[in-house]
Amino acid sequence: MSKRQRGHHTTASKPQAKRSRLGISIGAPSADDRRFPSDNNPSSSALSTRVVKQRHAPALASLCIRIFAEHFAEFSDEEHWESTRTWLKILPDSVLLNLFSVLKAQHPRRLNHAVITTYFLRGISVSLNGELALTSHTLTAIPRVLGSKLLVLELSDIDKYTDSTYAAMVKDLPLLNTLVLRNCPKVGPSTAEMIANNCRHLKKLNLNFTSVTALSLIALFKAIPDLEVLKLAGIQNLSDATISRLFSLLTDDGDQAGRIPLRNLKTLKLRHNTISEIAIAPFLQRCTHLERLDVSFTLLKHIPDLPASPSIEKISLTSTFLPGKELVELINHLPHLRILNAGAMGVKAATTSAMSTSTAMTLSDDILRHLTDALQGCPVVQSVNLVQNTKLGASRGHNSAIAYFIQHIGRKLSYLNLSGVSVRSGDLLGLVPENQGQEVSPLETLILNKSLVDDECAPWISSCKLLEVLEVAETRISGWQFITHGGQQET
Questions:
Q1: Of 298, 365, 376, 431, which sits 20 to 30 A from 51 (CA to CA)?
Q2: Residue 445: CB partners within 8 Å, gap ≥ 6?
Q3: Can you say how many angstroms the Cα of residue 168 is from the centroid of all Cα atoms in its chain?
């Protein structure tokens, strides 16, 4: 009963061997790790996808892009290519960008260096990934073709080329405001230095899973004081010691305009780093306008002091060691919170499911009740993820901790993930409006994989008229009750 579908990545090229998609799993399972068995290999634990009918006719341009992509192999053969290339050259930039996105998903290996640089390097934005048939010349062509016109550059999952190649590329892109180099492990100190020297207008910088060093970030922070989004996940060189060294060398002196490094930062991602509150604290001391903080899969045991009036809207603490009482106290000081990710609290990243049931788990039923009360002080909260908190659900009955949470918080959300939690059908009764005056739950996504729900939960879930995504893999649900109740609501 999910709208999610996995994109079909055909890897045809003239003719080249298939290349499997890179899937680097670091830490606990994520959405990218979910199983999607084929039709000839059904499984009771698999996700089931229903294609929901469109409420409106698709735009003509969208239909044309879809048909073109479906027949791209034919359109790019020797017989048709001359005509195809003529049409590609005259397509408007907006249409070409959408077409390129679809072709990258369906025919990545047909998009080689010549095709990309000749027909798709246009406009103010470029997005490339490691599935495409890139060469180092593709990267060097980006500044040559677009230069100062380029505002957004996104490169992801590219595990080749050298640090100097990336550095030479960004050298001649002075007006970039968004630079993503996610999971490009060869990106290192030279690239960071060149970004600092030449990309002074950056607002968003993603260096997740690269090889930059803490010291190479000093010049970058000083040169780009207006940075608003900084992502530094999974960087091997980042540790308590190296980050402490970084901030000891980063003075509070502003530039000529009085701008102080990191003062304008709104989003900070430090997940999957071997750091504790020792390294996180100096970031929080400087980032007084922070709105989104992700320290999941770190060694965090205590929350450092936050600004006096925190404006944090999203906080991710999954697989950290923060005590439950400190989590509750933290939420009490975040009145503007919209998104809370607190899965597998107390469990180290990549631990086995058997180990996750140990007493190390910090989120218990008692803590959940206090957390529920704290979240009631967050009037705009809309998403909560409590995945794999296996100590939850010890109490049963209509007044269980989970039932209390769903009645007072869960039913008000648009996204709720309780996968791997001992949720029982009766706990979901709180999704139903108590009276005619109470609004229908705005839930759009409900994830209950590996929970204890059975067919009795069908009427409670079917009361969520706006539900679009429901995941109940590896539960006790047979499906018949959902067919009965699901037919009563519009989807």
A1: 431
A2: 414, 415, 416, 417, 467, 468, 469, 470
A3: 29
CA distances from 187 to 61, 241, 292, 478 (A): 37, 22, 25, 49
Between the CA of residue 155 and those of 33, 124, 180, 412, 484, what are the distances in Å? 22, 15, 6, 37, 47
Cβ neighbour number for residue 326 with a 10 Å cutoff: 14
- Contact of 204 with 177, CB cutoff 8 Å: yes
Task: Find how far residue 370's CA is from the centre of its chain.
Answer: 28
What is this structure's pTM? 0.85
- The residues, ordered by sequence, that sit 6+ positions from 56 with a Cβ below 8 Å of its Cβ are none
Domain spans, the chain: 313-491
Per-residue pLDDT reduced to its tens digit, 154-208: 999 999 999 999 999 999 999 999 999 999 999 999 999 999 999 999 999 999 9
Residue holding tokens 């429901």? 470
Judge residue 446's burial from the number of C-beta atoms within 10 Å of its C-beta, 0-12 exposed, 13-18 middle, 19 or more buried. buried
Contact predicate 386/421, CB 8 Å = yes
Domain 313-491 coded CATH 3.80.10.10 = yes
Please name which of 340, 21, 300, 316 lies closest in space to residue 183, comparing C-alpha atoms.
21
